Amino acid sequence: MNxxxxxxxxxxxxxxxxxxxxxxxxxLGLAHAVLGAYLRMAxxxxxxxxxxxDVLVEAFRAAFDGERRVMLxxxxxxxxxxxxxxxxxxxGLGREARRLGVRLPRRxxxxxxxxxxxxxxGGPLIRWLLPRVGAMPVHHSKMDTVGMDRIxxxxxxxxxxxxxxxxxxxxxxxxxxPRLEAxxxxxxxxxxxxxxxxxxxxxxxxxxxxVRYEYDRRAVASLExxxxxxxxxxxxxxxxxxERRIAMPGRLAxxxxxxxxxxxxxxxxEKGAEPGAALRAEAIVEAALCTGERLLGIARGPGDAIxxxxxxxxxxxxxxxxxxxxxxxxxxxxxxxxxxxRAGESWYAMRHMELADLAWYFRSDPxxxxxxxxxxxxxxxNLWDFANRLAGGAISxxxxxxxxxxxxxxxxxxxxxxxxxxxxxxxxxxxxxxxVELKNAYxxxxxxxxxxxxx
Length: 455
Hints:
By secondary structure, the chain is an alpha/beta fold. Helices cover 54% and strands 11% of the residues. The chain is built from 16 helices and ten strands. The chain has helices at 25-41, 53-64, 81-100, 118-122, 124-132, 145-157, 183-197, 220-234, 242-246, 248-266, 277-296, 305-320, 333-361, 373-390, 420-425, 427-454, and strands spanning 13-14, 45-51, 68-74, 111-115, 136-138, 162-164, 203-214, 321-322, 404-410, 414-415. The strands form two sheets. Strands 2, 3, 4, 5, 6, 7, 9 and 10 form an eight-stranded mixed β-sheet that branches. It is globular. The two termini are 38 Å apart.
């Protein structure tokens, strides 16, 4: 990651100018060639397993043959799923197709939807790469006609399936589905409606893609280093005896308590006023969001906590990166100084948003003794993130535990076109029913993978 999150912003910047998304065959070939090494060396994956490969291959075949318009609805609990799934949707899928004896008419690939802010904090390489592999930016909390039209065109006429996360952003938990946004389902229904109106026979389908990272005992040393780092950072005290080192749940609980108390002190909350980690974290989220909104001078506005943090993120980034008509490089010295000051204040306001972003999902007590090892790893990573966000960090500071394996599960697609009559009668009910079916598919995969871990 570049330095935007590593050190405070003190200068307003001209906005990031991206070319129109397109798929460059040369860039795609290069990306596919290096993805495997990147996943191994940079992200720590030693093995990737694809389940439901036959279902995924058939979906791509149908998309390439013009029989289906395919939306790949992937879970986003960790942060690096787009890199992993880029490999799955290209190299992994190609191998699976060959194994099944299926000849695809073109090299498999999927175009991803990403938050508009990713190129802003992602650095020059990300800004160069994303549009050249067809990735499309979208705004969460303001009207984005251009972005929506681009996504609609990709669903209805694009040469590749579209990949997007109905969770909207990283959800930090693989063992539950805390929140789904309706946008992906609505986009699919609207495209299905348009295709039917013009007499096109293709059905629009939404395919659930689940992701789980798994660890074995070789990752114990990596986990231990992370927990020691947490204890040192938050002041919960390093273990002093071998027996204490074994009691991982107790160590995580002590660190959690230290972080909660520091956060409560930061926001002027009564220490431990609410019983239990969930309610205490909820109070911290509310205080952080209120602080971010106050620093930016924006009203609380409608919606839940996630919608509020989307607004803070939008306003904050829009004050750091200015549109062409407000290019700070052409401003008078005093105007430039004011723009720089506003950008710096916005960066600090977004630190509160980043804390709320993690803490909204991180509302559980530490895993109990005997919990699956993967659950302990995930909790420790989130605990570090909680402390790091309180210190002013962001997801770029996430710490990986290695080695790890990935299991990617493709579930049977949800045919939105087949549900179109119900959608035309009552859009809200049809959308809600499709979301329930999508969530059920994710939860079925979670249950299956949990059973695998317990065997």
